[in-house]
From TrEMBL:
Designated name of the protein: tryptophan--tRNA ligase
Places the protein is found: Mitochondrion
Main localization, broad class: mitochondrion
Gene Ontology MF terms in the entry: ATP binding; tryptophan-tRNA ligase activity
A family per Pfam: tRNA-synt_1b
EC number: 6.1.1.2
Length: 361
């Protein structure tokens, strides 16, 4: 159930969603927005941190509140172009993954970002209110740009947060469901909304709130000091929602741990074991204290196998549905077309107003 805590501007619901960054809204309607890059099969970090909370939003949002979920393929090319042969299949795989996890394409407007030209147009407009120096200070930019030698960083990577702001503001989003890794981008987004409103003397854009789930930063299985990520070169670092039972067991068994002995919860000196306990608690919807007590006196291997069991149990229906959906690609394309048709109506209407405000019309 959704619970809004006023004053602290916090929103909670069944999976413990939390709305950060207070802000006013010029609209009375909640507009929920989120996006995911088609850069691989969603992993359990995406699932716990973003997809599961989205399903909760879908079930509990006020009727009449638009829910927009975008497969952000323009963002996926900010680290370089995507091979023609992969582009379409990546989008279909992400769409199948979201549907298999429970996204309902009637309740949610599930659409493909590049199909709505207004995203890039608004990003251009917002770029006039943004500086290169500020974008260069974004932690995600600093981190991802290190991967390019001799400063050969694609332009899109720098502009990523501006495009992300355009994604949300184009629909006059009031609530943005994203993991903790997106907080800096959300701050930039709210600054842009305020700057636009201030410069054009309007209250057209609501100031969106960031909404994060309880599991806002799921860690990598192989290096628990970093977040689980689709683009980590090691597939052992993450469990994908389509992984077979055997693969889930293999990845859990190979997850970083130690040789200290029985299970104890000590995130500082035993980060690998603590990470496994966190995952087990997340999948069983229990507290760390309760799961630590359960495994007291047990070996780490027992914890790994038990974790594999609960993850596999959750993923079993999802992986079946995922593979079945992927064998009907025309159906996936139809679902995306349907979402695109609904999204573009809102995008065009808002863009006409934005152009009016800016004196372009
Ligand atoms: N490890 C994570 N824990 C919790 N939430 C996460 N998210 C991503 N990783 C974790 C959340 O999932 C949503 C979609 O993310 P994305 O695919 O658009 O981009 P990302 O954050 O960059 O995710 P990845 O897996 O790390 O993708 P790549 O490797 O392609 O960059 C977001 O809400 C994100 O917060």
């Amino acid at each position: 159930m959704l619970r809004v805590v006023s004053g602290a501007a916090q929103t909670y619901c069944r999976v413990g969603l939390r709305a950060a960054s207070s802000g006013s809204s010029s609209s009375n309607t909640d507009v929920w927005f989120s996006g995911i890059q088609p850069t691989g099969v969603p992993h359990i970090g995406n699932y716990l941190g973003f997809i599961e909370p989205w399903i909760d939003i879908q079930e509990n949002a006020r009727s009449g509140s638009p829910l927009l979920l975008s497969i952000v393929d323009l963002h996926a090319m900010t680290v370089g172009p995507v091979q023609t042969s992969r582009a379409r299949s990546n989008i279909r795989e992400m769409c199948a993954g979201l549907l298999a996890c429970g996204v309902d394409h009637e309740e949610t407007i599930l659409f493909q970002q590049s199909d709505i030209a207004e995203h890039t147009q608004l990003a251009w407009f917002l770029g006039s209110l943004q500086t290169i120096t500020k974008l260069q200070r974004m932690p995600q930019y600093k981190d991802k740009s290190k991967k390019f030698k001799n400063g050969q960083v694609p332009l899109g990577l720098l502009n990523y947060p501006v495009l992300q702001a355009a994604d949300v503001l184009l629909y006059k989003g009031t609530h943005v469901a994203v993991g903790e890794d997106q907080t800096q981008h959300m701050n930039l987004l709210t600054d842009l909304a305020r700057n636009f409103n201030g410069f054009y003397e309007t209250d057209f854009f609501p100031i969106p709130k960031q909404v994060t789930g309880t599991h806002a930063r799921v860690k990598s299985l192989s290096s628990p000091d970093t977040k689980m990520s689709k683009s980590d070169p090691s597939s052992l670092s993450r469990i994908e929602i389509s992984d077979s039972r055997e693969m889930v067991f293999k990845k859990c068994r190979r997850a970083l741990s130690d040789v200290v002995g029985d299970v104890t919860y000590d995130p500082m000196s035993r980060p690998g074991v603590a990470n496994l306990l966190h995952l087990y608690a997340a999948f069983t919807k229990r507290t760390i204290q309760s799961v630590t007590e359960e495994f007291a006196g047990n070996s780490v291997l027992a914890l790994k196998d038990r974790l594999a069991e609960v993850v596999d149990e959750r993923l079993e229906p999802i992986r079946q549905s995922y593979h079945s959906l992927l064998s009907h690609t025309a159906r996936i394309d139809d679902i995306l077309d349907y979402g695109n048709e609904r999204a573009v109506v809102i995008a065009r209407r808002n863009m006409a107003n934005i152009k009016n405000i800016m004196g372009l019309k």
